[in-house]
Design goal:
CATH topology: Rossmann fold
Strand order of the largest sheet: 3-4-2-5-6
Radius of gyration: 21 Å
Number of strands: 7
Largest sheet: 5 strands, parallel
Mean pLDDT: 93
CATH superfamily: P-loop containing nucleotide triphosphate hydrolases
Low-confidence stretches: none
CATH class: Alpha Beta
Length: about 425
């Protein structure tokens, strides 16, 4: 096993590719008003009409997002362009979804029954768990390329290569070349199973913004408003994806996002028959991993990178997420939910699979179990190398103080406090 130590977090060694990424494309502006973002989405799609389900709140969230973005003075020009471009893409996707459903209203009759949601802190095993369970072909899961563009911009003939897959693969290949150590932390592959964050992104109510910038104004707005409508919009997009796949509710959806951990009540309101799987890990160890991953990728988008500021920001953010989880955990009854402790999951993954399947009321057949075991054999932990973390030195964090801060979480969930 190769140990990876990132020694240039605060003062990155810059390559020509990183320098170009910090500057961003010359033909895309790094400042747009909300109206200009919408006009670009309209021009890209040839569509102009958003459906009424949540549109006023959507425009307010767009304005707040952009205001928060321009308040982040540490972003490079390329960093700002990334978020502005993502806002255009999110609204273009929404225009296409809304247009498709208006033309095919039968889509809204497709049942999204008994989905399985995976929630949990970033870096707490959720990605491994969703990719693992997705090997069961009785479940519907979401690929990265499909989540980025749920509705194709052009009609694709049977047997023809999908340009959405090619676009996603090109973007993430470039990202991987700029940041070669990311594969050891969180590999982004176009064909990999992905979070359903992108579906919430179309309602501009997804915390993916926060992985690219420091947006306290947006975070405050997000927590101050109910997010149930955004999950209702996610359900609409799942109906669209099911329609494209020829599904009529036969297969259950398998969905995953850390953001679900702070939206347990909203998910219960929209998907009352779901099964909720919540992973739990020592937040100190989560922050070791998360700050290293984000600090490493900040060399693309921040100048200076400011590792200590990054740690302060994410300590606050993880505390808000965990407090929301503790406050609302009881909305999910025992018969529909299960808490997965990271150390128990790592010690006995097959046993945890059996527990999850039992709670979801899904028989674990011999064929399904063979598929799951095959995934474990093919994807050993740390296959791309083991990253060595330094939360205290690189990020200036007092671990004893941090553990006192998270005492409320340790009191509620018996996670192993890792060394």
């Amino acid at each position: 096993m190769t140990d990876i130590v990132i020694r240039d977090m605060a003062d990155p060694v810059m390559t020509p590719g990183l320098i170009a990424a910090r500057e961003g494309p010359a033909d895309f502006p790094d400042y747009l008003t909300a109206e200009q973002v919408i006009e670009r989405a309209v021009a890209e799609t040839g569509l102009r009409e958003f459906d009424d389900d949540g549109a006023p709140g959507l425009l307010e969230r767009l304005s707040v997002t952009l205001q928060a973005l321009y308040e982040d003075k540490g972003l490079t020009r390329g960093g700002r362009i990334t978020i502005v471009g993502n806002a255009v893409r999110a609204l273009a996707n929404r225009l296409r979804v809304d247009d498709l459903v208006r033309r095919h209203p039968e889509i809204r009759d497709i049942a999204i029954e008994r989905p399985i949601f995976i929630a949990g802190l970033p870096r707490s095993g959720t990605t491994h768990l969703v990719n693992w369970l997705a090997r069961d072909d009785r479940l519907n899961s979401l690929t990265l390329w499909e989540s980025e563009e749920p509705v194709p911009a052009v009609q694709i003939a049977h047997g023809e290569a999908d340009p959405r897959l090619a676009r996603s693969a090109e973007v993430w290949a470039t990202f991987g070349a700029l940041l070669p150590h990311m594969a050891a932390m969180h590999e982004m592959a176009a064909t990999g199973i992905h979070e359903d964050n992108e579906l919430l992104f179309m309602d501009l109510n997804c915390y993916s913004w926060e992985f690219q910038a420091r947006l306290p104004r947006w975070i405050d707005h997000y927590f101050a408003h109910d997010r149930t409508g955004s999950y209702a919009y996610e359900k609409k997009v799942l109906q669209v994806l099911s329609w494209y796949r020829g599904e009529t509710g036969r297969r259950r959806w398998l969905l995953k996002s850390p953001q679900h951990m702070e939206n347990l009540a909203a998910i219960k309101a929209v998907f009352p028959d779901a099964t909720m799987v919540i992973t739990h890990r020592d937040p100190v160890d989560v922050l070791r991993s998360l700050t290293t991953m984000l600090g490493y990728s900040d060399r693309i988008r921040r100048q200076p990178t400011d590792p200590e500021g990054l740690a302060r920001h994410w300590i606050d953010r993880i505390e808000r997420l965990l407090r929301a989880c503790v406050a609302t955990r009881e909305v999910w009854p025992a018969g529909q939910s299960i808490d997965v402790l990271f150390h128990e999951y790592m010690a006995d993954q097959p046993g945890m699979a059996r527990a999850i399947y039992a709670r979801a009321g899904l028989p674990l057949t011999d064929e399904a179990e063979a598929r799951l075991n095959g995934y474990l054999a093919e994807n050993p932990r740390h296959a791309a190398g083991r990253v060595i973390y330094d939360l205290e030195g690189t990020f200036g964090v007092d671990l004893a103080d941090l553990r006192r801060r998270f005492a409320f979480y340790y009191d509620r969930f018996p996670v192993l406090q890792e060394a």
